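Entry under discussion copied across for reference:
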Amino acid sequence: MSQEIRNLEPKALWNKFADLNAVPRPSKKEERVIAFMMDFGQKLGLPSIKDEVGNVIIKKPATPGMENRKTIVMQSHLDMVHQKNNDTNFDFDTQGIEMYVDGDWVRAKGTTLGADNGLGVATIMAILESTDIPHPAIEALFTIDEETGMTGAMGLQGGMLDGEILLNLDTEEDDEIDIGCAGGVDVTAVAEYDEEPTPEGSIGYTITVKGLKGGHSGMDIHKGLGNANKIMNRLLYTGYEDFGLQIATINGGSLRNAIPRESVAEVVIAPIYDEAFVFDMMQIANEIKAEFKTTEPNLEITIEKSATLPKMVMPSMAQFYLVRAIYTAHNGVYRMSADFADLVETSNNIAKVTVGGGNLTIQCLTRSSVETAKFDLANALRSAFELMGCEVTFSGSYPGWTPNPNSEILDVLTAIYEKQNGSKPNVVACHAGLECGILGTNYPKMDMISFGPTIHGAHSPDERASISSAQKYWKFVLEILQNIPVKK
């Protein structure tokens, strides 16, 4: 781990982040980071609990003079999104994140950084370890599997926590205080088809879409970024309509909550179309690149002859329905909020498309701050996919977090922010999925707030954390701890 990270200020925060990033912690494979966190709490001599699903709770009493303040829950999630560039050789299951300093930013070498939500976890660790930071009684809650299902938050039982206030440290702009978020549901379409032999004399091509920015499918969905699966489908649709292209395989996207950056398809065409196919398809590719020249300047689309000819392809009628269903399925912002300015209300991310071996799967993550609107869009997707013969399931549904503009802790944070920065913070609801709404189902009286340092490019290898923002955020956290309201 680079020593330059450990030398950054505040050292307490960055050193804990470096310790955490040395531990592999993919979603649904959190055994090592759970053990790491339990060991951390026990070495401090603090009560440390692992609940039935794997969440870790560490409790620390108030510092002298703060015993009359309300108990707070400081919460962040242990898992991180694992994304890497195609040319990066890295094993997330065994390696720690390789970080470096780039001006005001901390980045990772070709992978996600894990600042989402590692900086929140590191903040809590630093405070638990401290001997000179005044604070009320703290219940540190480290949840698991936030990124792929929020099963940690969903599995947390009532009665585990006594805190009256929850500080969620999982937002990504340091001038924002979040008081609400969107809910989500996974929409998955699957189908089987009977492969047929590749026609004799066919020519194989590999179509590749890459170089897209990707990003968080909630926080970045409004930016007009390219979706590799939708771009690939445009190419396949045209190739099929104009040249009788036949699909052998498609592999597009990876994670449900990441805007897909790359897609690769193996296809075949009849030799009579060989020259015209490449010429016309590259024209389409250049048109697409021109459309995205502002938001996706590094988009690459290549059409190259395959080293080996696929043996089997998708039947024409199955392919006819597939490309039309993906064309029909909505991707991106569906509706803006009527209640909050510039807030996305409802959206969908066509996250992953895989075709081959007689099986196809299309995975989407639909989000909305309005529960009925969430399922309205999900049902629209279901309809498109069922019309092509897919079996469609909804899973992992989680509620949004309804804003409480009369929150006592919101008043505290707003006053501190204005005193420290000379301006008011942006009090917002976000389109990401925060765990507050889920935790609130078992702790409905808990006053909740969310904030964090500036992180850009989350859920992509371009993820980076601002050093100056981390300093601003740390100062903010320390004063919040000193100003928690007294018990009533």
